[in-house]
Design goal:
Strand 1 and strand 2 form a beta hairpin. The chain has 180 residues and is mostly helical. The chain is built from 4 helices and 2 strands; from the N terminus they run H-H-H-H-E-E. Helix 3 packs antiparallel against helix 4.
């Protein structure tokens, strides 16, 4: 060992952690596990709450789109009825002037109906997308809730690790009984 290197080598050894009896104590390990489980539980509950709130928002958005789809389909149905009326009027026209006006009316209503049907298809696609997002969010919320329930179970198990143990020795039966 070169001169001066001994002090450096000694300081390196001093920083290496040495296992103590406290670190190996089962009670300390159980207390550590209990704290870790409690932290995991609070994180899991927060994640479940966030996922549930997000699922509720997406479900509300899906409901809004569903209501919009119903309105748009109602509008398209009205245009269909108007088209039938305009076609009947065109068929019953007696003069050329009435016939021209009825044909123009049919053309306008056909254009409006085509626009309404395009809008219906766009809104139906939006509804399907919103419903899929809401379902995915609900599934994620359920998974988060399941993780929170598992974390609660882990906390109970960790709590049992710190509960006191009672030892009873039966001289009569020649047995040792342990109770926690």
């Amino acid at each position: 060992v070169p001169p001066g290197a001994g002090a450096h080598a000694l300081s390196e050894r001093a920083t290496v952690p040495v296992a103590s009896n406290e670190a190996l104590s089962p009670l300390r390990a159980a207390e550590f596990e209990k704290r870790r489980a409690a932290l995991a539980l609070s994180e899991a509950q927060a994640a479940a709450k966030t996922a549930l709130e997000q699922a509720a928002v997406l479900a509300q958005a899906a409901d809004t789109v569903t209501l919009e789809r119903a309105d748009v389909e109602t509008e398209a149905a009205i245009y269909r009825k108007l088209l039938v009326s305009a076609q009947r009027m065109a068929m019953s026209a007696t003069t050329d002037e009435h016939h021209v006006q009825a044909a123009a009316s049919v053309a306008v209503v056909e254009d409006d109906l085509a626009d309404a049907l395009r809008h219906v298809s766009v809104v139906r696609l939006a509804e399907a997308t919103a419903a899929a997002r809401a379902l995915d969010a609900a599934v994620a919320a359920r998974r988060a809730e399941d993780l929170a329930l598992k974390a609660e179970h882990d906390v109970r198990v960790a709590q049992r690790g710190t509960d006191p143990v009672t030892v009873f020795v039966s001289r009569k039966e020649g047995r040792v009984f342990l109770r926690q």
